[in-house]
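Field notebook, page 472. I keep forgetting to write these up properly, so this time I am using the form the group agreed on. The chain and the ligand, S-adenosylmethionine, are recorded exactly as supplied. Prediction of the bound pose follows.
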Amino acid sequence: MEKYDLMSDKAESFINEKEIAYTLAYARKYCADTAMVRHILAKAKEKHGLTHTEAAVLLLNEDREVWHEIAALAEEIKNAYYGNRVVLFAPLYLSNYCVNACTYCPYHAQNRHIFRKKMTQEEIKAEVMALQDMGHKRLALEAGEHPVYNPLEYILESIDTIYGIRHKAGAIRRVNVNIAATTVENYRRLHAAKIGAYILFQETYNKADYQKLHPRGPKADYAWHTEAMDRAMQAGIEDVGLGVLFGLHNYASEFVGLLMHAEHLEAVYGAGPHTISVPRLCPADDIDTADFANALPDGIFLKIIALLRLSVPYTGMIISTREGQRIREAALRLGISQISGGSKTSVGGYAAQDEPEADSAQFEISDRRSLDEVVRWLMEQGYIPSFCTSCYGNGRVGEDFMALCKKQAIHNFCTPNALLTLKEYLDNYAAPATVAVGEKLLREEMAQLPAPRRLYLQKRMDMLKEGKVVFF
Ligand code: SAM
């Protein structure tokens, strides 16, 4: 068996099973040791992160008081690095043709009755215009893996189409991409196509379970999949997004694996993951969650979110509409910084809003509210919904982004930019009730800005009215 080596380029070495087992044994031994727990919490309070071993000790600790401290600290860290901004995005499913055999995903090749669809460029345009009508500016492209139906050329052409659409107050400003693991050369081409982040969920870090869950197809290769982020970063993609699909394997070892992966990227490439997503397994077409033995209860799910916030304070955290309003509300307090809104997980689902949905959906969503309802709900809780993409537009990515974030200086850019994009949303897309809540929030937030920044922002808002602001 490989030895644990953070710097290695081999999956089984930087996600080392012996190290995971050792970490969990250590955590079981010390999780009730008050001195150890206090020591780790004191380190977390410095807001510079925890190691996978320290975080595992807190994960296995069962003291309610300790949990309350973790939750309060997660909220404090989130406010320090991200403030009250919440970035909004929508997934866009291009094609659900897939050659893989993932046992938890209804796109698996053996599923003969799911409605298969691959959008043409014209259909993509209609879909993107429907998303723009809602006010979306940031998308996450999703596709099954199929060398004939969904080759990289198709993905690249689709990205080009999307960036080229000018419709109703502007364009889509950032296209993140969630497609199967690929070669360095293909990642170079994605980078050249100006994608935002490359996102790939590990599904599970446990190799034996990974192989059972992916019995056939290119995704069956554990090392190829696990080393994908290394190839993406070698190809020049600086923002990568990690995630595991919680519910496939036991959560404690997934949590440790996820942090080991983040530590590996930070050690080798100087920047950890740009985001971490926390998807939980959902029911879907021919997928019954009861067939999977590792369902993650809400309480532990929220604890994992809070502990990720303590462990990787500079990393954005994403929650999708797999979760309903109640969990999203709690998760936002504990550290989530990006959420999707008004999502459809079917291919062509946005443009076909009023038609009965042909069943091409990947999974059942729990939060069915419109983007406008999500925006209003965020503001009613004191958050600034943000459609900002300017870090990316201005080249503040990878190490540069992390350096600013570490100094807690990202606020200087982000709050005014978020407010400007909120104003853009209110002026162009919002329902009257949302405008009322939003304008009040804008006044309150602007009053809190230092005078020079407030004046500058006011000037930009006036320019926005005249159509003179160029967003990146
Ligand atoms: N084909 C790409 C790949 O293999 O990584 C993109 C994957 S898919 C479009 C996006 C993600 O949806 C998967 O990585 C998986 O984690 C998640 N997913 C699949 N089935 C799911 C289910 N039943 N419930 C929740 N999430 C699911």
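OBSERVATIONS:
- The pocket of S-adenosylmethionine is lined by residues 104-105, 142, 144-145, 178-180, 200-201, 203, 219, 245, 279, 281-282, 284, 287, 322, 362-363 (CB under 6 Å).
- Residues 55 and 307 are 7 Å apart (CA to CA).
FOLLOW-UP: compare against the apo run.
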